[in-house]
Amino acid sequence: NAGVTQTPKFQVLKTGQSMTLQCAQDMNHNSMYWYRQDPGMGLRLIYYSASEGTTDKGEVPNGYNVSRLNKREFSLRLESAAPSQTSVYFCASSYTSNTEAFFGQGTRLTVV
Amino acid sequence: GIQVEQSPPDLILQEGANSTLRCNFSDSVNNLQWFHQNPWGQLINLFYIPSGTKQNGRLSATTVATERYSLLYISSSQTTDSGVYFCAVDYSGGSNYKLTFGKGTLLTVNP
């Protein structure tokens, strides 16, 4: 049972480049989330999808877009990467909102 | 939004010692979780505990929702317990889900 799988694990981008972070879960969860972790800041919610077909902004959505491709997959897109988006990105899922959330292993992104 | 404060921010222990980590939150919550982030960056679920007490081996947790705090107890600590411990809550009065994290407690267990 893989749980929540993120790809890639590491990525270096130049300022202005675009990329998509992929996330998939195999736990039949309805809700999925994207967080970023910066030193001293804890984890902050970027976007979430309470169920297939819906997405909502979190605390820090600027510069990002998301797609809930199907029940299993939730992608995060950076259209024009900026150095301020250098961070570790975590995807998470839960059966419904307010139930236990499980996290992927993270993607370490550096924008130069 | 809801505020989550963890204490202490840093803690250094000798192997075998016991410790208590605290999480205070500013409003009523539907969900409270404790996570351990190991030195490789993985977030490990420890407890899902919106109220009550749970135990798992050397670790236990208690949440007193009416008083808006949760405690994580680590007994007979081991070097593998080192890492950052996060508390995260979901505000019950919000219209949308938002798991809000504290800034964590950095635990170092020395051999």
What secondary-structure arrangement, pairings included, does this model have?
The complex is a heterodimer of chains A (112) and B (111).
Chain A: E1 4-7, E2 10-13, E3 19-25, E4 31-38, E5 42-49, E6 56-57, E7 64-68, E8 74-78, E9 87-94, E10 101-103, E11 107-111
Parallel strand pairs in A: 2-11
Antiparallel strand pairs in A: 1-3, 3-8, 4-5, 4-9, 5-6, 7-8, 9-10, 9-11
Chain B: E1 4-7, E2 10-14, E3 19-25, E4 29-37, E5 43-48, E6 52-56, E7 59-64, E8 69-74, E9 83-91, E10 99-101, E11 105-110
Parallel strand pairs in B: 2-11
Antiparallel strand pairs in B: 1-3, 3-8, 4-5, 4-9, 6-7, 7-8, 9-10, 9-11
Quick synopsis:
With 112 residues, chain A is mostly beta strands. Helices cover 0% and strands 53% of the residues of chain A. Chains A and B meet through β5, β9 and β10 of A and β4, β5, β9 and β10 of B.
Overall description:
Chain A has 112 residues and is an all-beta fold. In chain A, strands 2, 4, 5, 6, 9, 10 and 11 form a seven-stranded mixed beta sheet that branches. A four-stranded antiparallel beta sheet of chain A has the order 1-3-8-7, with no helix packed on it. Chain A has strands spanning 4-7, 10-13, 19-25, 31-38, 42-49, 56-57, 64-68, 74-78, 87-94, 101-103, 107-111. In chain A, strand 9 and strand 10 form a beta hairpin. With 111 residues, chain B is mainly β. Chain B has no helices and eleven strands. In chain B, strands 2, 4, 5, 9, 10 and 11 form a six-stranded mixed beta sheet that branches. Chain B has a five-stranded antiparallel beta sheet with strand order 1-3-8-7-6, with no helix packed on it. In chain B, strand 4 and strand 5 (43-48) form a beta hairpin. Chain B is globular. The chains are: A mainly beta (112), B mainly beta (111). The interface between A and B is medium-sized, with 26 and 22 residues.
